[in-house]
Amino acid sequence: MIERLAVIGVGLIGGSLALALRAAGHVGEVIGCGRSRANLERALTLRVIDRIAEDPAAAARGADLVFVAVPLGAMRAVFQALRGQLAPETVLTDAGSVKGSVVEDVRAVFRAIPSCFLPGHPIAGTEHSGVEAAFPELYHNRRVILTPLPETAPNAIQRVSAMWQACGAEVDFMSVAQHDEVLAATSHLPHMLAFGLVDSLARMRENDEIFRYAAGGFRDFTRIASSNPEMWRDICLANREALSAVLARFSVELADLADSIRRADGERLFEIFSRAKAARDRYVDQARPMA
Amino acid sequence: MIERLAVIGVGLIGGSLALALRAAGHVGEVIGCGRSRANLERALTLRVIDRIAEDPAAAARGADLVFVAVPLGAMRAVFQALRGQLAPETVLTDAGSVKGSVVEDVRAVFRAIPSCFLPGHPIAGTEHSGVEAAFPELYHNRRVILTPLPETAPNAIQRVSAMWQACGAEVDFMSVAQHDEVLAATSHLPHMLAFGLVDSLARMRENDEIFRYAAGGFRDFTRIASSNPEMWRDICLANREALSAVLARFSVELADLADSIRRADGERLFEIFSRAKAARDRYVDQARPMA
Predict the structure, then answer these.
(1) How close A67 gets to chain B, by Cα (Å)?
(2) According to its UniProt record, which protein family does this protein belong to (chains A, B) (predicted)?
(3) Per-residue confidence of chain B (291 residues) as pLDDT tens digits?
């Protein structure tokens, strides 16, 4: 149970956490703070938060848990505002899609990693953003990856885990580096392909015609290209190294495919497509219990 | 109204046409023919077809419309079997995802394009195949592209258009070359990216772990990688030129993205992502009436 929760950044992620905890009876008061006053007023009207705080320090005052869900590029400024303002029992966690950069920000601002800090990442989201997109079931049956640091207190791990479990999520633990590599492959790279594909088609002369004939599969395939550009810019910058590595690996694969098509190498194409289909079908079977 | 329909290749596409025409009361008898006897027996049991024919010539006998829905690589053999077997009033059409190669096959087999022949392509499908995947609503509100040739008789255009409209589809006309370019961009290229991505991840050492953390967006994004490998090998070979051109264009886009990430060029990334999001959002608005 969290008596007072401070949500810094009341968008899809922060708003859905507040709604999920309320639905589970796992939270008392929710204090919201963020860049857009209009969004915060909306969050108040929607009863996602109980009160607006002027800045992160005011939000954190008296909170037993501070949840930071702002774009990665805004993290450091939030930590600066929180520095020296956290009570000894307050737990600090975040929802950043890249963990290495958040840990770096915390280290740069606080000098040493505070024992109250546990980096986290809920593997959930939609292509929509803002508090109006928030809903209490967002984390149902989703995975949340926590990446405890050597400095993290067992109490912080226990409280943050219990919070996510109350939202219906499954909690997993891994290292910061492992998280950033896995996410580069399974999330950041697919987003680059979707953004790149849609942009590439949008720049074709006949693009109205092109999009007109894009069938059902295309809609699913490109849904993630409707994601927030600011958030994705920040993710790319924050996970530059791991993302560059998987992009390079994918480029080799794509060159191989293009070459097989040019050479009309049907056997090679069949081999690639069959291996991909087998992996996709196996993955869907594996993932079914979570869906 | 089609008194007798011959379906060569009773899978998702051919089976769904038969079911849709039956549901619309637009067909009398349906004769099925195909490579797999077990699949045809299943089609009979499911009442997708009324009778099994031993070969395409037997299926076409007395049919007023012959619908060829076999993989592109099997088209030529079907046309060879049909040569000299079509009554003067019989209309011949197909569902191939590439039109240039089908026209080439018909020309090679029949020497001249028969006036009864109208190439077509329903922009519909799922990642499943076989007659068990067929359902009567597959073509509801979908586009069907017809690519009449100078030789095609007006009567064939009229009958094939009426057939697709009876299935609830919207009929569009374009040239063979235009069809193959539009489809390369909106369907064939996205399939290459999905197959390539899943294969690239499947080949990573930690692939079980990787797929375990692939979130909801990944499932949508890679759904088309579960498509039939044989069909897609044939599409790549048949649309080699147009597909190579869009692949080359996409590779330039991807290299630009990779370079912007390496250089940490946030402005450039934001520009690409914003343009893609705007195009995707506009496309979804445009497409809504069809969904």
Answers:
(1) 22
(2) Belongs to the prephenate/arogenate dehydrogenase family.
(3) 999 999 999 999 999 999 999 999 999 999 999 999 999 999 999 999 999 999 999 999 999 999 999 999 999 999 999 999 999 999 999 999 999 999 999 999 999 999 999 999 999 988 788 999 999 999 999 999 999 999 999 999 999 999 999 999 999 999 999 999 999 999 999 999 999 999 999 988 777 778 887 766 788 888 889 989 999 999 999 999 999 999 999 999 999 999 999 999 999 999 999 999 999 998 876 654 443
Q: State which residue of chain A sits closest to B219, comparing Cα positions.
A: A284
Q: Find all residues with CB under 8 Å of A62, minimum gap 6, and list them.
A: A4, A87
Q: Do B254 and A225 touch (CB under 8 A)?
A: no
Confidence of residue A273 (pLDDT cuts 50, 70, 90): very high
Q: Do residue A83 and residue A131 come from a single domain?
A: yes
Cross-chain residue pair B214–A283, CB shorter than 8 Å: yes
Domain match, B19 and B119 both: yes
Handedness of CA B232, B217, A259, B254 (dihedral sign): positive
What one-letter code names the amino acid at B217?
G
Task: Give kind and range of the element (H or E) at residue A31.
Answer: strand A27-33
Indicate whether B160 and B225 sit together in one domain.
no
Q: Do B279 and A243 touch (CB under 8 A)?
A: no
State pLDDT tens for residues B252-270: 999 999 999 999 999 999 9
Collect all residues of chain A within an 8 Å Cβ-Cβ radius of residue B228: 277
Task: Order across the sheet with A27-33: list the strands.
Answer: A51-52, A27-33, A2-8, A65-68, A91-94, A117-118
Chain B residues in contact with A125 by the CB 8 A cut-off are 215-217
Q: Out of B153, B173, B193, pick the residue that ends a domain.
A: B173
| pLDDT single digits (tens) A36-82 | 999 999 999 999 999 999 999 999 999 999 999 999 999 999 999 99
Among candidates A39, A276, A109, which has minimal Cα distance to B223? A276
* Candidates A233, A262, A282; nearest CB to B270: A233
Both A46 and A91 in one domain: the answer is yes
CA distance linking residue A243 with residue A233, whole number of Å:
12
Residues facing A27 on adjacent strands:
A2
Whole-angstrom CA distances from A100 to A72, A240, A284, B190, B211 are 11, 10, 29, 31, 21
Tokens of A80: 């600066």
Of A186, A206, A250, the CB nearest to B196: A250
* Total domains in the fold of chain B: 2
Does the distance separating the beta carbons of B230 and A254 come in below 8 Å?
Answer: no
Same domain, B16 and B152: yes
Residues of A in contact with B190 (CB under 8 A): 197, 217-218, 221-222
Sign of CA dihedral A177, A183, A189, A191: negative
* Run of H or E including A91: strand A91-94
| Preferred mutation among A186, A188, A243, A262 to probe B, highest tally of B CBs within 10 A | A186
Look up the domain containing B39 and give its range: 2-173
